[in-house]
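Please fill in the sequence for the structure shown.

STRUCTURE ENCODING:
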């Protein structure tokens, strides 16, 4: 992200498809998504640590 866009990420959240609120035309409702993010409403999509990956049934 830094090399391509000269931006630094504070956090990166991967969410399951269909999780983000959208308008009737399919655009992401950014203000609503931000509120959900700040409230901690998004469930993690994948384990966040290598140990969690190793202990998963598929790992």
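FILLED IN BY: designer on duty
SEQUENCE:
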């Amino acid at each position: 992200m830094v090399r391509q866009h000269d931006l630094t990420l504070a956090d990166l959240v991967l969410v399951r498809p269909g999780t983000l609120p959208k308008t009737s035309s399919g655009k992401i409702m950014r203000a609503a998504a931000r509120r959900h993010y700040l409230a901690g409403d998004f469930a993690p999509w994948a384990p966040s640590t290598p140990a969690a990956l190793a202990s998963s049934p598929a790992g």
